[in-house]
Amino acid sequence: MKKIISPFVLLLSVWATAQNVVSDTIVLSRKNAETLFLQNNLSLIAERLNIDIAQAQIIQAKVWPNPTFSINEINLWRNTGSEVLPAIWGNYGRYQEFGASLEQLVYTAGKRKKMIAIEKVGSDMAEEYYKNFLRNLKMEFRNNLSAMQYNQAKKAVYQKQLKSFQNLVKAYEIQVKQGNISQGDYIRLKASELEFLNEINAIAIENNALQSEMKKLLHLSPVVFIKIDQEDVIPDMTMVNNLNIQDVINDVENYRPDVKLAKLNEKYNQKKYEYQKALKTPDITLEASYDRGGNIMRDFFGLGFSIDLPVFDRNKGNIKAAQFSVEQSKLNKEELLNGAQAEIFETYNNFKAAQKLYDGIGLEYQEKLDKMLDSYLASFKNRNISLFVYLDYVEAYLSNKVIVLETQKELNNRLEEFKNASGQELN
């Protein structure tokens, strides 16, 4: 049972199969398949949560440290000669001493703002990392779509020839029994039939692997069979053909997530360097205290503060390490940028070569191949050509059809590589 369904209906179908319903074949266009991929892919959903995690870290960085409250100097029994104090509750507390203090850590040198700045850059990095992850996963997904289209089209070509040969084998079997045709011709046709069956079996095994990978990417039930529509097998190349490759190379910093991520990494290390420099300034701890019955005053209230003295540790090592990290990230950014620009030019040339090859084949040649095959089959049935001449053309026909299909797949893959290198959709 076959049906073309929307992503929403597809989700219902997948739910049904999960309830032990008989497996179904779903036919998807490349566009619908990608919509489902963006909605359902578990890796993308999990990676997207890193953005929320990074934003939560910003919230945490804005929070002041908690104050510390302590009670001490409590005596649990009466000491000889204890001064009689006013009771706290009933008769309790007449001979008890205790102290209480409240401490609050105060960051100096703008450390809190610097920590917030670091986490904000970290949040931006999480977003760019997600975009880069999506960029690479999209190329993998789209190449898988092209491989499935190629596999299915190739299988259709071989199945069509198999059906034709099976009809010939049945006719020859009758003619052999009647003594009109030699056993050798029948065996040769039967061998060709087995070759087709063997090739179709190999295609089916390859398709099983593609099906498994696609169902993982789309998060579908394992019993669903996916078929990709062949109507959009040739990509829209209008925008790519009209662009200026130098402009694409110059704009790589604005579109490639990994390049933007490298720039953010430099900024992140710069913020860390500023934070490490601030750490050489010690923080201050403010204190308010109360002491009951433990001083010359019966009720003593006092204020104070504490601060580390930067005598031995002025954080020089960490500051130097952070400075080296900034320099290192600059070099990594430049290297990645140069590599990205070179990759754009390389993948563009590869795409243009694949496009030239595909355009050189032309639709007219493909139509002629099919017509010539029908003509050879008719001539063979009318005994105008020999079996070997017919088989020789069938072999040449299949070889050329496979080349055409491979060229279509190569065109899609090379376009996706170029789009991936540029960081732009270009359609």
UniProtKB/TrEMBL annotation:
What protein name does the entry list? Transporter
Keyword tags: Signal
Q: Which GO terms describe its molecular function?
A: efflux transmembrane transporter activity
**From which residue to which does the signal peptide run?**
1-18
Family under the similarity heading? Belongs to the outer membrane factor (OMF) (TC 1.B.17) family.
PANTHER family documented for this protein: OUTER MEMBRANE CATION EFFLUX PROTEIN, OUTER MEMBRANE EFFLUX PROTEIN
Could you tell me the superkingdom of the organism this chain comes from? Bacteria
What Pfam families does the database record attribute to this sequence? OEP
The protein's matches in SUPFAM superfamilies, at most eight in alphabetical order, are given as: Outer membrane efflux proteins (OEP) (SSF56954)
Q: Does the keyword Translocase apply?
A: no
Instruction: Read off the Gene3D superfamilies from this record.
Output: Outer membrane efflux proteins (OEP)
